Amino acid sequence: MTETATLIIDGRSYELPVLTGTEGERALDISRLRSRTGLITLDDSYANTGSCASQITYIDGENGVLRYRGVPIEDLAARSSFVEVAELLIFGELPDDEERAEFRDLLTENSALHRDMRKHFDGFPADAHPMAILSAMINAIQAYDLPEIHITDAGGFRRAAAALIAKTRTIAAASYKSHIGQPIAYPRYDLPYAENFLHMMFSVPYRDYEATPEVAHALNMFLVLHADHEQNCSTSTVRMVASGGANLFTSVSAGVNALWGPLHGGANMAVIEMLESIHEQGTPVARYIDQAKDKKSGVKLMGFGHRIYRNFDPRAKILKQAADDLLESMHITDPLLDIARQVEEAALADDYFRERRLYPNVDFYSGIILRAIGIPLDMFTVLFAIGRTPGWIAHWKEIHDNPDQRIHRPRQLYVGDPLTEWLPMGER
Ligand code: ACO
Fold this sequence. Notes:
Layout: E1 4-9, E2 12-20, E3 26-28, H1 33-37, E4 57-60, E5 65-68, E6 71-72, H2 73-79, H3 82-91, H4 97-109, H5 118-123, H6 130-144, H7 146-149, H8 154-180, H9 193-202, H10 213-225, H11 233-243, H12 248-259, H13 267-281, H14 285-293, H15 314-329, H16 335-348, H17 351-355, H18 362-373, H19 380-400
Antiparallel strand pairs: 1-2, 2-3, 4-5, 5-6
The structure holds acetyl coenzyme *A (ACO).
């Protein structure tokens, strides 16, 4: 028997179904609330709203659990390649040998950009932000690869997904090369995904860049840890755009824009800027923490806090160790890592952060890793976008494949002016 909850309004009672997810989490089904009662729910910033039922990613924020298609993030970070994780998220299962080989071939075949897309790179000013370039160029792909846009069967979707994952990496590296005035490096067909990206970023015509295994491993892990995170700001954007029937490339381009903000993916840049400013100005960590607690200061502790994680972010835990390991293997001492550790320790001991259950999130240590690899600061959020692309594709597919899908269209409580008379110019 379906569990229900009773809602009493104006003396009338209504039974609302209570739904239970795979892991026992419960949700009040209000999908017929308005038609039955005339009321809507109001949940500014959606902290209590489930926007969909999804099979892709599970998070238990109280216990720091994250799983892609049921598989724990710790196992994927330690053992899987980014491409394998992409297949898991998008197609629902870890690939077998044959599927893996076929998808890798698709990625390889689709790595290069149409020759005429070069014009677009030339059209951007040299100091254009790489996130603006990435979103514009992902949207532009559809003008050049038309057959992949109209997805009608599973094979077409596989090709489109591979094209998007492969070309996002190529666009990202090419935007960096354009920015620094170097010739674009073409993808190599013999390199795995992370190594190929590093080659396109750092090879120059007279010298090929060879990533060390440690660097390739760290970048692969970074991408795996960013690959999906259920209904966050950018993924919800992708789903929203997709619900209107928009194609894969346009929907993901919208996700890139949503990711850009400093409260979301832009936080990985903001963390390094914060640590650099503490370092350069010699600000005592305790004073910075005091500023972050003072609402009037406009300062936040970047890389801290999360809407869902209220205990710890499992990605931050893995990345903290990975940052330590990478710097040690590269024999690098980064003063920012020391400052990050001090900031974390001070915040975790402080009542303000403890009471609000604010912990380091995925962005707190990821920038230390990207810095060590040599990724420039304004590419950090682009790296996040490369990592998140498989997740966005998986969510687009969930919308696209749902025969009952309706356009996403929230309602509102209007609190503006009541009926107001239009006045001619002289009477306003
Ligand atoms: N520094 C100082 N205070 C904070 C911080 C922080 N980083 N984060 C939250 N708080 C405070 C809030 O001011 C609020 O205080 P109050 O109860 O006295 O009003 C309380 O903690 C609760 O925080 P909310 O803002 O309600 O949390 P919300 O879930 O809306 O926001 C967010 C989550 C955006 C991540 C927030 O913690 C934040 O701004 N963090 C810094 C930016 C950041 O690291 N973003 C990356 C998030 S992970 C990702 O998107 C990839």
